[in-house]
Amino acid sequence: MIANIRIHSIFILFFLSLSFYGCNKNNTAPIIPVENFFRKPDKTSFQISPGGNYISYLAPWKGYMNLFITHERENDSTRISNSDNGDIQKYFWKNDSTIIFLKSIENSEKKILSAVDINIKSEKVLIDSGDTDIKIINMLKNNDSEILVSLNERDKRIFDVYNLNIRSGKLTMTERNPGNITWWFTDNEGSIRIAVTSDGVNSGLLYRKNEEHKFKPVLQTNFKNFIEPVAFTNDNKNIYAITNINRDKSALIEYDLENNKEVREIFNHYEVDLDWAFTSEISNEVCGVSFTTWKKEFKFFCGDWEKAYVNISKKLPGRIISFVNSDSKEETFLIKTLSDKTPGEYYTYNIRSRNLKKLADISPWIDENLMSDMKPISFKSRDGLTIHGYLTVPKGKKALKLPVVVYVHEGPWQRNVWEFNSEVQFLANRGYAVLQINFRGSTGYGKDFWMAGFNQWGLKMQDDITDGVNWIIDQNIADKNRIAVFGKSYGGYAALMGLALSPELYKCGISFSGILNVADLVESIPPQYEPFRDMMYEMVGNPVDNKTELQNVSPSFLIDKFKDPILIAHGDKDQRVKKYEVDRFAAALSTRNVPVNYLIQKNEGHSFKNQKNKYELYGEVEKFLLKYLKGQKKL
């Protein structure tokens, strides 16, 4: 199944041989150029064609990610797209000769859906969206000329279903959204059989036997309790789903829609939620699930898949191994690997021959021998919760009295995971230990832990970060006089709140697109997320009813509490936190003689997409931290 529906300035490229970078006699890593950590991958997002004859991937061309293909038995690659104004974000094989891809236009919200014939390299625009959002529902594998998409063209708040003819470009509405449907779900034949509804607080499933019948309500739950369809069973009667209804940790179940009851629980993990489940395109049975304890793990139900996983794991020890896709016979699989010290590699694996063939390193300039280990940690919060996280200590250094950067994850309803993180490895390479904390409200640890973060922005969620900093001080890992806090979006907000509420803990802080006024953020929900407004009010606070409480946890209203130096980075096109608000905040800090470095990038939004701007940002981060934390000096 394609979609996961859970709610939820100098440009210098260093072409230096990696052999030049050797660890010194103290086994510490030399300084690696900023650009090496934040370059776009050489090749990424590999897939195998349905017939198994072609390998496709994304790679830079004219500064943007474009589509390339190579024959499975050949080494020569051919570029088949021509985007010079935005990256291709997603793509799908429609059949052996056609690829459908979605690209975002730089410096805008515009998206374009196109098809390309790989034989004649003919690219055809199917939907030029303007400000319309595009979601792909189903590629309709048994129909060579049509796919199902959902668009908010008629009303920016809701998505209708359209049949899109990829030859003529004709769009035909097949399902009109009554206003409360947030996702549509197909059976194994590509027929819309399930609709997921939400009124902002309550969600539910609508079901019908076939497209001639009307939808009927099956299940109604509060948003805190979800059921997420994965796939229909082979007979198209029941569904496999991930749910946390009547349980704290989500589980994989089989659900009888006609009789509205859970048939059986297939798998759950006592400690964490399930991430996702994957199914066989041949048998339509669920073949496995993934879940993340301190790192991603898998449980398989199909024997061939499990044997393949075990065999590949033996050949590639220390790697997380994921199945990306396969040919239509499920004989050859596209495999992606990663670890904490490498963005990973792509391989093909043939189940019959057990042949593992390497296709590419995602970032070949990253030498994992020079990267630092990311290790799991845990501690108790002041009110007794177990808080998990990760600690990365610079290579060759002992975890003793080190300068530390507390790196707060975005979201906030996400979590840190064990993987290669460019920011973390960059900071470790500069001599800083990096602490990442999955504070309450982070996802993956069950319903209760997630709900413990409701209405706790700047309060108990912030306390968990503070408790983590105190823990790392008590363990003598941190030099208590050299600790910084750094984050993006919600992480930038938490960095600012840490500086305001606990100035004694931090020497300085960095806010990248940090939220400044919580009430404004909640109030200014984009139209396409309007159905979830009431949910946001319950999770964060109502900007009218809780105005005072939200002001008390908003950096814009805490100017007099800031003392420590701050680096603020922001895009002037940011729609979530407006530039004028950041200008005003930075000016107010300066008026109070708080040292402020303010980096504003033109034509950037809430995150920086331009590679040159990323290089400049992290160059400024490097100088800022060196000044205040005295990390490893640049050679």
Description:
With 635 residues, the chain is of the alpha+beta class. It has a domain at 375-515 and 565-584 and 597-629: 3-Layer(aba) Sandwich (Rossmann fold), CATH 3.40.50. The chain is 17% helix and 35% strand. The strands form eight sheets. An eight-stranded mixed sheet has the order 28-29-31-30-32-33-34-35, with helices on both faces. The protein has a four-stranded antiparallel sheet with strand order 1-2-3-4, with no helix packed on it. A four-stranded antiparallel sheet has the order 5-6-7-8, with no helix packed on it. Strand 17 and strand 18 form a beta hairpin. The protein is globular, with a radius of gyration of 25 Å.
In short:
The chain is built from 11 helices and 35 strands.
Task: Provide key terms for this protein.
635 residues; alpha+beta; Rossmann fold; eight-stranded mixed β-sheet
Helix and strand arrangement:
Blueprint (H helix, E strand, L loop, with lengths): L33 H5 L5 E5 L5 E8 L2 E8 L5 E3 L8 E6 L4 E7 L6 E7 L4 E7 L5 E5 L7 E6 L8 E6 L5 E5 L5 E6 L5 E7 L3 E6 L8 E7 L4 E6 L5 E6 L7 E6 L4 E8 L5 E6 L6 E7 L3 E5 L2 H13 L4 E7 L5 E7 L6 E6 L5 E6 L12 E7 L5 E7 L9 E7 L13 H8 L3 E6 L8 H5 L8 H15 L3 E11 L1 H12 L6 E5 L5 H6 L9 H7 L7 H6 L13 E6 L7 H13 L4 E6 L9 H19 L6
Parallel strand pairs: 30-31, 30-32, 32-33, 33-34, 34-35
Antiparallel strand pairs: 1-2, 2-3, 3-4, 5-6, 6-7, 7-8, 9-10, 10-11, 11-12, 13-14, 14-15, 15-16, 17-18, 18-19, 19-20, 21-22, 22-23, 24-25, 25-26, 26-27, 28-29, 29-31
